[in-house]
């Protein structure tokens, strides 16, 4: 099995490498990467490994930024000294969240979990491949039941302008600028919506195509979106996501 380690503390990286070797000598560490920048660069130039061990607080920011810049389709085991990021971690391919100092039995359990996940998806590969073709259009979510005060309200999906994450909450805004708080993660909501209608433009925003009113050029080959109802901050498409976003808009 090929893995990479994203870790900015050399002693921690070396300890993890030794622990992995003692658990399974067949584990090959393809790279040890100390920063968001180095990780993005490596992933752009190399095949995605089978598994990633990833610290969260790196020298140049949170490792979650990696997922904004490059597509990662392999499982991730987060290894960190902080417990406040666990919820966000599970929005980014996480199959486990280990706290430093990592105990050997916890690491072994995480690797066993990886093996179970791998076996499951290998056994169900054909079903996964055929899923987009067998998923009927009507299976996408048509309405959201939301609470406003003491009352409940049903909002049609086509009347939703966008969803966004802020301060560990996810909010939904309709085309009348009404805001509602939801008890689901942005990733869970994304999986329920028609991808032809909604697009995850970055880690924070999930937009309805109809809410995008203007697309402007932005420095460093990025794009700036103007949406309706308007937001109080800029919505930026990163350089790495520009091609995919243009393809989605032109479908």
TrEMBL record:
Alphabetized GO MF terms: DNA binding; phosphorelay response regulator activity
Keyword RNA-binding: no
Keywords: Phosphoprotein
Record bears the keyword Phosphoprotein: yes
Every Response regulatory domain range: 2-115
Domain HTH LytTR-type span(s) in chain numbering: 144-251
Modified residues (4-aspartylphosphate): 55
Name this polypeptide is given: LytTR family two component transcriptional regulator
Native source organism of the sequence: Pseudobacter ginsenosidimutans
Lineage of the species this protein comes from: Bacteria, Pseudomonadati, Bacteroidota, Chitinophagia, Chitinophagales
């Amino acid at each position: 099995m090929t893995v990479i380690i994203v870790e900015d503390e050399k002693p921690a990286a070396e300890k993890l490498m030794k622990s992995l070797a003692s658990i399974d000598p067949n584990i090959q560490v393809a790279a040890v990467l100390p920063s968001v920048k180095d990780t993005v660069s490596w992933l752009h130039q190399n095949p995605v490994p089978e598994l990633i061990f990833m610290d969260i607080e790196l020298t140049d920011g949170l490792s979650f930024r990696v997922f904004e810049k490059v597509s990662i389709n392999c499982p991730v085991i987060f290894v960190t000294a902080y417990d406040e990021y666990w919820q966000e971690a599970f929005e980014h391919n996480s199959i486990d969240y280990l706290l430093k100092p990592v105990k050997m039995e916890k690491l072994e359990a995480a690797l066993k979990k990886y093996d179970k996940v791998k076996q499951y998806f290998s056994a169900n590969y054909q079903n996964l491949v055929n899923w987009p073709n067998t998923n009927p259009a009507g299976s996408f979510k048509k309405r959201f039941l939301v609470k406003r005060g003491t009352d409940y309200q049903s909002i049609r999906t086509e009347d939703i302008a966008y969803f966004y994450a802020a301060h560990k909450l996810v909010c939904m805004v309709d085309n009348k600028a009404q805001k509602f708080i939801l008890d689901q993660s942005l990733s869970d909501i994304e999986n329920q919506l028609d991808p032809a209608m909604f697009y995850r433009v970055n880690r924070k925003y999930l937009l309805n195509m109809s809410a995008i009113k203007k697309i402007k050029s932005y420095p460093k080959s990025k794009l700036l979106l103007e949406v309706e109802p308007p937001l109080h901050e800029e919505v930026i498409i990163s350089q790495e996501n520009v091609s995919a976003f243009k393809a989605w808009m032109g479908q």
